[in-house]
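Give me the fold.
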Amino acid sequence: MTEHAELSSDRLKQHFAQRVLHQARQVLELWQRLQRSAWSSVYRDELLAASQRLGQCAERFQQPLHAQLASAIEQCLQAVEANRGRLNSALIGELDSLMQRLARSGLRQGDDSAPGILSLLRKPIYLALRDGERSERLARQLEFFGFTALPLDSVAAFRKALRQRHPAAIVMEVDFAGDGGGLQLAEEAQQGLEHKLPVLFFSEQEADTRTRLAAVRAGGEDFFSGSLDASALLERLEDLTRLTQTEPYKVLIVDDSRAQTTFTERMLNSAGIITRSLTDPIQVMAALAEFQPDLIILDMYMPECRGTELAKVIRHHERYVSVPIIYLSAEDDLDKQLDAMGEGGDDFLTKPIQARHLIATVRNRAARARYLKARMVRDSLTGLYNHTHILQLLEDARVRARRDQQPLSFAMLDIDHFKQVNDRYGHPMGDRVIKSLALFLKQRLRKSDHIGRYGGEEFAVVLPDTDAATATRVLDDIRRRFAEMHFPAQPQDLSCSFSCGIAELQGEQEAKVLASHADEALYRAKHAGRNRVETFATSLRHLHEALA
């Protein structure tokens, strides 16, 4: 094949690759729409048509994984139709699992390091900054995190780029191309658009309220003053440009009437909400531990106990203190309703209830609870899970691994020579390095993996369904890539690396033993030269060899 023919072939492959990616995104966006609407025959037909288009593109481009996922989604939708067109919890869970796999899938079959559909589909970030050098440097930093950034040095260049393609987001200096020119240009870019482009504004000087108000009207999602901190900018861009696959809400229904629980389940299932029902309230604690719901619906009057009594039992367990409890009862006495809410309840709904009312209440309460829980269990600097919660997630993963007979690995990471970074460049630079590694890990690990900030410059990762060899390969690739990053600094740019220790769950091991083994492997990696990954088994072998 000639060089020209090879180039033509590559262009053709890229063309079909983009078609596969865009069809996948359509399927994912349709599925996420269920989180805001309700199931219907029209919605089902749209999702089916999008899945069929994905399957056709995948077959043509010879992407067996995407073809397989599209076929599985079609089969699942056919099962919904066979269920008289109704969703149920099992089908919602199966569809969501397929969508999560689709979101994570890369283009190259069998390549574990291939980026997911969502990262490959990112549109470019337009950088409209007066300082060309700052713009170029920022573009290079964004590239390390999977973004394509396009520095633009004039109004003409900005308008031309906008005519060719809309960006995922715009980083706009307020005074780009003249005093207040950036505000005017951003407002111009938004004209005629149904959905505004997200704009992050920047000003070297502290901006007054009038300027900030103009920025909001021009689609401003954030405003940076003084200096343009790359790590903070990265976090906002990640939030604004990613298409997150939000897990369906899970609701536990406790009511002694089977007819009522079935009716409530059908209403919630129609909104893509996964449910589990109990007619025996005595089983509630076991169901909570296994199901981990976002919200609980309780009947007020049951033969075994009253709903208020059960709410108190639930609230006595600190793990469920913040789980919203909604009473759903025929009780219409306002005083009794208020008394019930004062005893562990968050809301009171009266039977019979309209589906829209119930769904809206559940969604709002569950969304708020998820948000508050995230604030409680996450580290304020990085957004990762805190020390206590990552260990709780490790214990949960250990129980599931033993029950399902699946492997489980635990990794501990430590930034090398971090004290020198703080001493030479200051704590703000140290925080920037920590936040950058946190984002790096979030982007390159699976959604099913749990990442925590263990303390200081130390991180922990729980990797379910993963043996030590696979965990080593994945984290070693992340280690190599992170070491290639450059942080702008004086007198020269800064590079950092990390060391990592990995342990795999063995038999009946306790979580604290697994964590201790990962810590020992990390210790070995630090003392073997840093910037490396060690497993606990490898560390033991080296130790025995040294003693021999």
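The chain has a mean pLDDT of 85.
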